[in-house]
């Protein structure tokens, strides 16, 4: 491999090959690597700044995740590559290389928190080698492909190897080692001893998390990941005097003897998790203990919390969670769950009988045990913050997407955790096969009961008991009208903010019969809606009559680019920078559509301008006179009421534009009393005068030009296109400004100074969730009657609600070029959230809820921070959980625009009865 030291060679190593050939070779090598994925394959980190310049030169590379910085705004990004770009210089990774910690001989570091596809790209080894051959440069940044996950293997490139801080007990010197989290403890010993010049048999390495001895890391085949070692954490090296590895003593930095017997905590046969105690994934006991109350014996606290023993006098539930490196998202979700009353009651008791070790969809009980262990620590440690290392280690094993130290979404973690806990605690050991039946017009109550019974036959756990509800889903085929009704379970409700559901669109409406001036209308439509929805909203805005219809079209370069005639096509196909018009036409069996395009006749030539006009012709066959009459009729609203040096009657005022019906054609009386040099018959295009303008017949490509005379016979066609040539005379007669400057669908102006947005209610979010909408083009429904996939309409209704109801406010939106977060303030009730009117079943159950926890997100995407508010039910007080820091808050403080996930508990009938006996005004709103 070529030397990558700087300074870099400024020339290529060989004669350049054509850019399209470079692209073909690289694309084939990328495809080849994807077909041969295996652990240990090498990938190389390449600066996206350099790689995007190569893509501009050679073209986009299939299979490579990269965002071209020059087209990241999303406006006509596809045109960037059509421009001729210069061949890039040598590969230059200098902008992503960190100069810190690069002196230990390991692989070069890159800056932390870089984003793949934005800051860097990963190229397979063969791609790196060919790029290096063509361009030279560097330096090389090799990284290995690793596999993660227990249930489902996932391959990922370990861009950031595990970095550990080594403290040498002999002199307290500090150093850093970097190696894969998939490396074994034996490999760790080998690397540390080689770096320190120590014999392995004399070395003892401790897990020194928080600068406290936790566990002796005995050399074995256990991986660093399974040993729960975290990024940037400390490890302690002790060197014994004796050569015997099992010696009971060694010397510390002061020459004193140190006990080297592994200081594992005394292990009882009982675990605080209510199950076999888990030490690095190995079971050490089999009996269980039933705990009374919310505190556990201090002797059972694991080494992660040796200094967090039970404080008998302190209230439980007020412990924080240490941040292990961008784990605030996890801490926020966990604090909400460990303050969920039914979960607290369940996991503080013996749940051993419900652990399902054999469920292929579960985590062999390990996730439930790790969560239960963590919950017990939090409720028994007083106010001492807990490092959730063991839980994070288990989480990473079963959900590799949450491994590493990048920021993630607290709701995504919550969804995985609830589902994982359910499967680990599923009381159903053998899931039966059940064939679902169609509703076939049966009563909703019967179908809903049948669906819930079938669900419970396969899913029966604490999570189902308290967290799962049921909604009704109605699908309607737009072609045959087939109605399909299903009743599905849900664990939480992801409800949109209305501003993420609707879209503002501006469309210019033209009269197809020449009875009025064109007028732009701005309407709000569903983002996931279709052309039919846009027509409906426009029709309401422009007071469309019952015998009228709207024909939508996109105008580009002053021509009709396309007609939007499919009523079910998604509005997403219309971009914000496009210009859309609607032609208001009478309903009827029209035969011939007439398009009128406008050309300015200038000395230098002809130039298109303005928006085309569209109307329908009745007579058949068509002659030039018919076309001319139709054009005059369409232009009549644009006729000026004016005076000028050429056409005025002695007055010196300019032209006057009247609006609406007041802008009508000049009456015959007005014509007779005026001294216009152009007669009324000439203006109206009737016989007795020559036409005031020239019409030219053209074709679809607009290349054919055939002048039209009054007696010209027009070949029958469904669509006739003509040019209207404008001279000074036409501009004097008609005001062409109404045809110019069509507004864009949505004009993104400069962002105004941020002000507090208008608050919306939780109810309006819920109603947006329950609004009927068409399915997206990627989510078509297979109609059993049509035997084809159809873009059906979907309507959701709440059928039954659980005891614990979780609302996820969809604040984040993602697209190829834009990531956005809405900081809209959502006004949600703290007490007495009454959802009775939204629930379709009438089962006599209470559907009134009280808030008890909130997961908050502050800041923008990528750089935000998560916290939690949770209520201690025992003392009816709220607390703020910000990682390790816990502080009391007032009820008035918990409402903010940062609220992201809301947790509610249903009121019992006893609470409802007690509430009804409280005098009016004595409880909070």
From TrEMBL:
<keyword id="KW-0788">Thiol protease</keyword>
<dbReference type="GO" id="GO:0016579">
    <property type="term" value="P:protein deubiquitination"/>
</dbReference>
<feature type="region of interest" description="Disordered">
    <location>
        <begin position="653"/>
        <end position="689"/>
    </location>
</feature>
<dbReference type="InterPro" id="IPR006615">
    <property type="entry name" value="Pept_C19_DUSP"/>
</dbReference>
<dbReference type="InterPro" id="IPR001394">
    <property type="entry name" value="Peptidase_C19_UCH"/>
</dbReference>
<dbReference type="GO" id="GO:0004843">
    <property type="term" value="F:cysteine-type deubiquitinase activity"/>
</dbReference>
<comment type="similarity">
    <text>Belongs to the peptidase C19 family.</text>
</comment>
<keyword id="KW-0645">Protease</keyword>
<feature type="compositionally biased region" description="Low complexity">
    <location>
        <begin position="662"/>
        <end position="689"/>
    </location>
</feature>
<feature type="domain" description="DUSP">
    <location>
        <begin position="17"/>
        <end position="146"/>
    </location>
</feature>
<dbReference type="InterPro" id="IPR050185">
    <property type="entry name" value="Ub_carboxyl-term_hydrolase"/>
</dbReference>
<feature type="domain" description="USP">
    <location>
        <begin position="319"/>
        <end position="907"/>
    </location>
</feature>
<protein>
    <recommendedName>
        <fullName>Ubiquitin carboxyl-terminal hydrolase</fullName>
        <ecNumber>3.4.19.12</ecNumber>
    </recommendedName>
</protein>
<dbReference type="GO" id="GO:0006508">
    <property type="term" value="P:proteolysis"/>
</dbReference>
<dbReference type="InterPro" id="IPR035927">
    <property type="entry name" value="DUSP-like_sf"/>
</dbReference>
<dbReference type="InterPro" id="IPR018200">
    <property type="entry name" value="USP_CS"/>
</dbReference>
<dbReference type="Pfam" id="PF00443">
    <property type="entry name" value="UCH"/>
</dbReference>
<dbReference type="InterPro" id="IPR038765">
    <property type="entry name" value="Papain-like_cys_pep_sf"/>
</dbReference>
<keyword id="KW-0378">Hydrolase</keyword>
<keyword id="KW-0833">Ubl conjugation pathway</keyword>
<dbReference type="InterPro" id="IPR028889">
    <property type="entry name" value="USP"/>
</dbReference>
<comment type="function">
    <text>Recognizes and hydrolyzes the peptide bond at the C-terminal Gly of ubiquitin. Involved in the processing of poly-ubiquitin precursors as well as that of ubiquitinated proteins.</text>
</comment>
<dbReference type="Pfam" id="PF06337">
    <property type="entry name" value="DUSP"/>
</dbReference>
């Amino acid at each position: 491999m070529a030397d990558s030291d700087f300074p870099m060679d400024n020339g290529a190593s060989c004669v350049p090959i054509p850019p399209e050939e470079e692209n073909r070779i690289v694309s084939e090598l990328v495809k080849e690597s994807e077909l041969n994925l295996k652990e240990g394959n090498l990938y190389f980190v390449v600066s996206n700044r350099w790689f995007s310049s190569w893509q501009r030169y050679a073209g986009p590379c299939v299979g490579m995740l990269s965002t071209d910085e020059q087209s990241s705004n999303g406006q006509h990004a596809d045109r960037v590559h059509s421009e001729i770009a210069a061949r890039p210089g040598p590969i230059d990774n200098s902008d992503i290389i960190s100069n810190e910690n690069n002196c230990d001989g390991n692989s070069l570091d890159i800056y932390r928190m870089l984003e793949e596809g934005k800051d860097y790209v990963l190229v397979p080894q063969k791609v790196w080698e060919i790029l290096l051959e063509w361009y030279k440069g560097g330096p090389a940044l090799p990284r290995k492909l690793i596999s993660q996950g227990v249930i489902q293997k996932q391959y990922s490139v370990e861009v950031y190897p595990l970095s550990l801080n080594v403290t040498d007990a002999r002199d307290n010197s500090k150093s850093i080692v970097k190696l894969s989290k998939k490396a074994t403890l034996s490999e760790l010993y080998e690397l540390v001893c080689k770096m320190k010049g120590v014999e392995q048999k004399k070395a003892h390495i401790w897990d020194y998390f928080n600068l406290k001895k936790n566990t002796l890391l005995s050399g074995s085949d256990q991986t660093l990941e399974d040993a729960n070692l975290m990024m940037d954490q400390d490890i302690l090296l002790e060197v014994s005097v004796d050569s015997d590895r099992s010696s009971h003593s060694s010397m510390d930095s002061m020459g004193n003897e140190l006990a080297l017997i592994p200081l594992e905590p005394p292990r009882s046969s009982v675990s605080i998790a209510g199950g076999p105690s888990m030490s690095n994934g190995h079971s050490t006991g089999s009996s269980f203990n039933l705990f009374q109350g919310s505190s556990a014996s201090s002797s059972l606290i694991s080494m992660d919390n040796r200094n967090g023993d039970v404080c008998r006098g302190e209230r439980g539930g007020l412990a924080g969670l240490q941040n292990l490196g961008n784990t605030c998202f996890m801490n926020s979700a966990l604090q909400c769950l460990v303050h969920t009353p039914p979960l607290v009651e369940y996991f503080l008791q013996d749940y051993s009988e419900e652990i399902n070790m054999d469920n292929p969809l579960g985590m062999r009980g390990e996730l439930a045990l790790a969560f239960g262990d963590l919950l017990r620590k939090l409720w028994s440690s007083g106010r001492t913050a807990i490092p959730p290392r063991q839980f994070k280690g288990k989480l990473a094993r079963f959900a590799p997407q949450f491994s590493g130290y990048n920021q993630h979404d607290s709701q995504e973690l919550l969804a995985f955790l609830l589902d994982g806990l359910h499967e680990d605690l599923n009381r159903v050991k053998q899931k039966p096969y059940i064939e679902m039946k169609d509703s076939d017009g049966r009563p909703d109550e019967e179908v809903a009961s049948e669906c819930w019974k079938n669900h419970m036959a396969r899913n029966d756990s604490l999570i189902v008991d308290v967290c799962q509800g049921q909604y009704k889903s109605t699908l309607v085929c737009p072609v045959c009208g087939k109605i399909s009704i299903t009743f599905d379970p849900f664990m939480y409700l992801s409800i949109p903010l209305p501003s993420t559901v609707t879209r503002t669109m501006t469309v210019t409406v033209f009269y197809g019969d020449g009875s009025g001036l064109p007028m732009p209308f701005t309407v709000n439509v569903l983002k996931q809606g279709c052309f039919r929805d846009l027509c409906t909203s426009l029709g309401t805005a422009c007071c469309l009559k019952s015998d009228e219809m709207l024909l939508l079209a996109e105008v580009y370069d002053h021509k009709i680019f396309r007609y939007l005639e499919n009523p079910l096509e998604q509005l997403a196909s219309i971009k914000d920078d496009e210009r859309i018009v609607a032609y208001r036409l009478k309903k009827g069996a029209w035969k011939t559509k007439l398009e009128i395009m406008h050309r300015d006749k200038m000395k230098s030539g002809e130039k298109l301008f303005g928006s085309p006009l569209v109307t329908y012709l009745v007579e058949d066959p068509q002659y030039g006179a018919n076309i001319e009459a139709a054009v005059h009729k369409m232009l009549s609203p644009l006729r000026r009421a004016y005076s000028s040096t050429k056409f005025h009657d002695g007055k010196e005022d300019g032209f006057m534009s009247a609006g609406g019906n007041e802008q009508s054609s000049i009456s015959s009386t007005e014509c007779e009393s005026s001294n216009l040099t152009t007669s009324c018959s000439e203006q109206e295009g009737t016989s007795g005068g020559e036409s005031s303008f020239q019409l030219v017949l053209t074709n679809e490509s607009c290349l054919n030009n055939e002048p039209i005379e009054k007696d010209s016979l027009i070949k029958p066609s469904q669509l006739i296109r003509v040019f209207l040539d404008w001279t000074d005379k036409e501009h004097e007669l008609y005001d062409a400004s109404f045809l110019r400057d069509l507004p864009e669908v949505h004009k993104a102006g400069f962002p105004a100074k941020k002000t507090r947005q208008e608050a919306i209610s939780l109810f309006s979010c819920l109603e947006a969730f329950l609004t009927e909408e068409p399915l997206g083009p990627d989510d078509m429904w297979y109609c059993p009657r049509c035997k084809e996939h159809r873009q059906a309409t979907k309507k959701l209704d709440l059928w039954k609600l659980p005891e614990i109801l979780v609302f996820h406010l969809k604040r984040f939106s993602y697209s190829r070029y834009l990531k956005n977060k809405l900081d809209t303030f959502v006004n949600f009730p703290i007490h007495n959230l009454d959802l009775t009117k939204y629930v379709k079943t009438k089962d006599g159950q209470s559907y009134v809820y009280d808030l008890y926890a909130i997961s908050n997100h502050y800041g923008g995407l990528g750089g935000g921070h998560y916290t939690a508010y949770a209520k201690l039910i025992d003392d009816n007080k709220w607390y703020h959980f910000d990682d390790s820091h816990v502080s009391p808050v007032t009820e008035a403080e918990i409402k903010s625009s940062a609220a992201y996930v809301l947790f509610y508990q249903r009121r019992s009938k006893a609470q409802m009865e007690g509430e009804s006996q409280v005098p009016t005004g004595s409880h909070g709103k």
